[in-house]
Amino acid sequence: MKTLATVVLTAILTSAFWIFAFGISRGAPPAAGGSDARVDGKVEGKGDATTVRSAAGSASLSVAESVVVGPSGLAIPVAGITANQLTDTFTVARAGGARRHDAIDIMAPEGTPVFATAPGTIEKLYYSLGAGGITAYERSEDGRWMYYYAHLSAYAPGLAEGQKLQRGSPIGRVGHSGDASPDGPHLHFVINQMAPGEKWWNGTPINPYPLLAGKAATR
After folding, report:
1. The whole model's pTM is what?
2. How far apart are CA 169 and CA 158, in angstroms?
3. Rounded CA gap, 33 and 10, in Å?
4. Measured between alpha carbons, how far is 49 from 44 in angstroms, rounded to an integer?
5. What are phi and psi of 183, to 5 degrees?
6. What is the Cα 145 distance to its own chain's centre?
7. What is the mean pLDDT of each run of 10 residues along the chain (219 residues)?
8. Exposed, middle or buried by CB within 10 Å (0-12, 13-18, 19+), for 53?
């Protein structure tokens, strides 16, 4: 039996993925007090966001050349991060103790590539002003799980709602959009268990830490 140490999955679809498939263009800053700007289901650039203008359903042909995969089969969704670098922040209090975090924060330098933790479909690209900032919701292939990526600085070029993803497909880049501090850029990563009929904003959060790190929850 394999130990709980992570293994590295090499998935080669393009030899220069991070150089050529991940160019970033900046969007304009959001207007003060503005609402979420959406045009025909696409995400308009706000703050650190890119403008997603590719036609829905245009699939990316690239995945990360190597991803670190936990014993659950889920990839750690930030490039260069290993299981030993993860911290269990799932039960940490937020809003002065008013709520539980219900996520883990994966710390990484601004602009570090973020990719899909598992195969699925982009169900929603959403700008959450004053909260998650630039976010992406990916539903698993069986529909039972929703993977939520937040505080991004930008989306991957061409990312679109309805797009099919493989484990390692590009999502965006680490940032501090929304209510995150610029002093601590990170990926806010959530796994929600979805009941039949639940929408992208629903679900019951489960702790991603044991699934990614192969270790028991620390709190």
Report:
1. 0.69
2. 12
3. 44
4. 8
5. -80, -10
6. 14
7. 38 32 31 30 30 36 69 92 91 61 90 96 92 94 96 96 97 91 92 96 92 78
8. middle
